[in-house]
# Entry
Amino acid sequence: MRRAAVAVAAGAMAVSLAACGSAKESKGSSDPSGSGAKKGDDITVGLLLPENQTARYEKFDKPIIEKQVKDLTNGKGKVVYANAKQDATTQNQQVDTMVTNKVDVLIVDAVDSKAIASSVKKAKDAGIPVVAYDRLAEGPIDAYTSFDNEAVGHTQGQALLKALGAKAKPSAKIVMMNGAITDPNAAFFKKGALAELKGKVDIAKSYDTKEWKPENANANMEGAISALGKKNIVGVYSANDGMAGGIITALKAAGINVPVTGQDAELAGVQRIVTGDQYMSVYKSYPQEAAVAAKMAVALGKGEKLDSIATSKVDSPTAKQVPSVIVPVVSLTKDNIKETVIKDGFYTINDICTDKYKSACDKIGLK
# Structure
């Protein structure tokens, strides 16, 4: 399955990167004039991912980036990897270590977008460009790639309203389980979802879930059920699949069956969609995002410009006009599993439809 996802990355990017328009380099980007010293293929890319609670990082992002770097450097480039396990202090130390070891470029998915800023500056001062990956890290970053995170929230909110149907009315109580406040993406997800839900349903309880942990979402959900009463909850907005798992465990224990959203198209989340325990997830093409990050990193590591890669610009609180690539998202339900995660090589039908889920798969025509 991993090999299939990696293969998709190469194919998808061959099309998407060829179609990329040019963009003017931001101030501070690596060698904007093109006059600096260029490096060959023998570069070292430091990859720092934020946590291992979410399945995507170890299963998709890391192997795809490793393969892309290898392919883009004729097998001469290498990736040095570290996972912060949701600890911002640890991640800062990991950046410092990579700066000391003189990697050529960094790809950083920040645990805490603000806390990482000083380490990004250390890298920049050492002449090491930084690609902010998935989350818009603060500090003097050189490039950024992610998804349209506000669109993720809109997609989730729209899906929840669709699932509620006639039950979607201003008096209908839902629970909103947002992500960690240290993750800047969580604020975008929430903003997009609120734009869809506010005034159309009653957001009776809302939580910012510490560290995105399923067990914290489970505890929050148990508290919401106790406070609101199990007969009064008509749906749950969950910002991702991991938390949806914890939420659904609490709902089932209370005998509640209501629509629950998600994000990331994790295997367990897709299987819950198959059984009807979870209504939807947001499918994001990690192969495409990871391939873009690798392309940016290799170019910056070699001292090349990003004109042929970056298609847009974004501003962070500390950096303006950062060359960026924003990847679109898709609402994943039981109706389009074949057209999304299976077609793109994330999973095979056998991955999803194990013995435990075969009957449910058969019912929705997933064979």
